[in-house]
Each structure stands twice: as structure tokens, then as C-alpha cells.
Design goal:
By secondary structure, the protein is mainly alpha-helical. The protein has a domain at about 30-99: Winged helix-like DNA-binding domain superfamily/Winged helix DNA-binding domain (Arc Repressor Mutant, subunit A). It is about 50% helix and about 5% strand. The chain is built from four helices and two strands, in the order ββαααα. The protein has helices at about 35-45, 50-60, 65-75, 85-99, and strands spanning about 10-15, 20. A two-stranded antiparallel sheet has the order 1-2. It is globular and about 40 Å long. The chain starts with 11 loop residues before the first strand and ends with a helix. The model has no long low-confidence stretch (mean pLDDT about 85).
């Protein structure tokens, strides 16, 4: 019975090296997404603090939107989450894939 229960950590390390807990994550219903907040949600999911489904429900995100954030962090780190630079980082990644 215990094997079927998932154990979640009490905290994970955030994108800036600070501890993140459920209470320190951006509030549910956040609509203004700055780079730091996006990176915190991605770190929480990657660290097991939230599941992808919990994050999408809590923040009213689509799975594709969250996956885009995760991909941006994996490829370019926090700067890849900047909305004004999405095209720049996408082009850079595509050029790297060619060579």
C-alpha cells in the first residue's frame, strides 16, 4: 500500500538557488508571468514538489504552455523564458541543431 503513495519533498531548490516550498511558489491564479515565476514553477515540477497536472490546474496553464517553459529552461536557462527573446532563442537553437 505504501509503495503506491508518492512521497513529495517539502522543498526543492529554486532557479536562483533559494529553497522553494508550496507556500513560496507564485499564488494560484497568477496572470502576470515574469521569468522568475515561470522558472520557479518549472523547478517545482522538476523537483517533484508539484506534478505537471497540479501546476497546470493551479496556474490555469495548458500542457503545451508549460512544456514550452520547460523546453526553454532546458535549452537556454532562465533567459529563454523571456517573452521578448523567444524568437531569438528559437532561432539560435535551430541553428545549433543544423551543425
Amino acid at each position: 500500500m505504501i509503495e503506491n503513495q508518492k512521497i513529495k519533498p517539502g522543498q526543492v531548490i529554486g532557479p536562483l538557488g533559494e529553497p522553494l516550498t508550496l507556500d513560496s511558489l507564485p499564488p494560484a491564479g497568477t496572470t502576470r508571468w515574469v521569468v522568475r515565476r515561470k522558472a520557479e514553477v518549472v523547478a517545482a515540477v522538476n523537483g517533484g514538489l508539484l506534478s505537471i497536472n497540479e501546476a497546470c490546474e493551479r496556474y490555469d496553464l495548458t500542457l503545451e504552455e508549460f512544456a514550452g517553459w520547460q523546453r526553454a529552461v532546458d535549452r537556454s536557462g532562465m533567459p529563454g523564458l523571456r517573452v521578448t527573446r523567444i524568437q531569438h532563442y528559437r532561432d539560435l537553437y535551430e541553428r545549433q541543431q543544423k551543425y
